[in-house]
């Protein structure tokens, strides 16, 4: 009996050792790179601003660790270091595959001179941003970024169907709003009741536009009960109600 028990214990000891050595090796990364290499890299991305070559080049040095020792956080960090990459999902699939989903920054507008605003409302900087076409220009204090984006969104709704297009929204340090239209017209809204003032102007704009005055050079809505229009052709004047005392 004793001999049989000893043999069983010895057999179990050998089995556990044989199992434990590879497991220890995997955990320490000693065998992982050679015995369980990453052979396949599967990438899902839009490839609008980031190329497949950039993604593979950023990930390639990490793959030498092998399947078990590969640190997914390191992979994500390497990809997040690429311009235009906003978020990365990474996972390993047995026995030899790394799967990546790369989400790119989607530009919504320019902010100031060098930065871009993503559609998620975050600021980011990339080389060649000045080459992008068709983005509105937004500006203001950095801590009021969300306010400027929200105001721009509301302006787009107000201008819908008016025949006018907003290309710039600026908020001064004093809290005054100014718009620039695609025609080059500047619109001064002031600090208070900016959207109400804009709505009042857009209500009468169809009548002004039907005249022969051309394109306004500037529109000043900082009046209590009216507004002032300066036309590009100084000789042409359109009737616009103005108060004697401009508002803030």
TrEMBL record:
Function: Essential cell division protein. May link together the upstream cell division proteins, which are predominantly cytoplasmic, with the downstream cell division proteins, which are predominantly periplasmic. May control correct divisome assembly.
Lineage of the species this protein comes from: Bacteria, Pseudomonadati, Pseudomonadota, Gammaproteobacteria, Lysobacterales
Family: Belongs to the FtsQ/DivIB family. FtsQ subfamily.
GO CC annotation terms, alphabetical: cell division site; plasma membrane
Name of this chain's protein: Cell division protein FtsQ
Entry-linked InterPro entries: Cell_div_FtsQ/DivIB_C, FtsQ, FtsQ_C_sf, POTRA, POTRA_FtsQ_type
Keywords on record: Cell cycle, Cell division, Cell inner membrane, Cell membrane, Membrane, Transmembrane, Transmembrane helix
Assembly behavior: Part of a complex composed of FtsB, FtsL and FtsQ.
UniProt membrane topology term: Single-pass type II membrane protein
POTRA domain: residues covered: 36-105
Top-level division of the source organism's lineage: Bacteria
Protein location: Cell inner membrane; Membrane
Gene transcribed to yield this protein: ftsQ
Any one Gene Ontology BP term: cell septum assembly
HAMAP family found in the cross-reference section: FtsQ_subfam
